[in-house]
Amino acid sequence: VQLQASGGGLVQAGGSLGLSCAASGSGFSINAMGWYRQVPGEQRELVAGFTSRGSTNYADSVKGRFTISRDIAKNTVYLRMGSLNPEDTAVYYCYADSTRGGVGYRYWGQGTLVTVSS
Fold it and tell me: What is the largest CA-CA distance in the chain?
């Protein structure tokens, strides 16, 4: 499974930005998909994600500002980020959980940088 993320960039505080991540490959099915982010020197943290049951999880820090959505047919997940603040500056990584042969795997995208200027 390959994950290709796009979007990100530089935005002023209070602005909005969108990310997308498409999974490709053969012979796989996605169980869960979403986004993490990481600031240098800190642990990667979950931002938002779809569970295997289709429900969504959000970090408390982004609730009400970020919205995750998906296109199941396209194996694509989106993250709409609003009311951005400098604390949202990070590298954002999409992930996808898949099962193959009864074994679960987590795949990561290449990361896309989001910079919020004050």
Answer: 48
